[in-house]
Amino acid sequence: MSGFDKVVTSYEEAMEGLTDGMTVIAGGFGLCGIPEGLIGQIKTMGVKDLTVVSNNCGVDGFGLGILLEDRQIRKMVSSYVGENALFEKQLLANELEVELTPQGTLAEKMRAGGAGIPAFYTATGYGTPVGEGKEVKEFDGRPYILEESITGDFAIVKAWKADRYGNCIYRHTARNFNPMAATAGKITVVEVEEIVEAGELDPAQTHTPGIYVDRVIKGSFEKRIERKVLAKEER
């Protein structure tokens, strides 16, 4: 890798520098838009005591769920945890610390962290366990709680296309968390379906500018579906 070329050719190089106790921010929404290969590399590395920030923790045996198998995650900051039986088991056994965060608040925590904003006020969570112990301030007669932003040692994201400079485009639901996560890591690694040459991406359509990205790797993806719901045949 030389100059502004951010492409790496191995997952070992992509996740170089990740060590025990670090915070990893992971993009994805359910199993949509998750960096499958980067998650697999974290499992292979065997790093422990991780704090993982992501909308959810995958499912049993896939996505971030594979990191629970060897208890690599110490703390999970997420919004939805209902698709993973091992997650539930470790939570109830006090083997996993969990910080549940409203979905929009979690997205804004990432975005604010990437923008250098240390905290922000939101009405979401006021008067619930989410707001307990947090500073409250009124604006126009409505109470808001103070939420701190989030940054991580690593951010791992999945994009549809990226150029060699790290400029990224996401598709559809993969835009829910990946763009915010990409800005919030000290080291941001993008796993991408297709790498194109500089100048091929329309600047007006670029979702994440390459200034936020440190490493780009081309991956292959299973794109598993969490839960299939099929319509019943009419008789």
From TrEMBL:
Lineage: Bacteria, Pseudomonadati, Pseudomonadota, Gammaproteobacteria, Alteromonadales
Keyword Cell membrane attributed: no
GO molecular function: CoA-transferase activity
Pfam families linked: CoA_trans
Family classification: Belongs to the 3-oxoacid CoA-transferase subunit A family.
Name of the protein in its database record: CoA transferase subunit A
Keywords: Transferase
Entries under PANTHER family matching the protein: ACETATE COA-TRANSFERASE SUBUNIT ALPHA, KETOACID-COENZYME A TRANSFERASE
InterPro entries: 3-oxoacid_CoA-transf_A (IPR012792), CoA_trans_fam_I (IPR004165), CoA_transf_BS (IPR004163), NagB/RpiA_transferase-like (IPR037171)
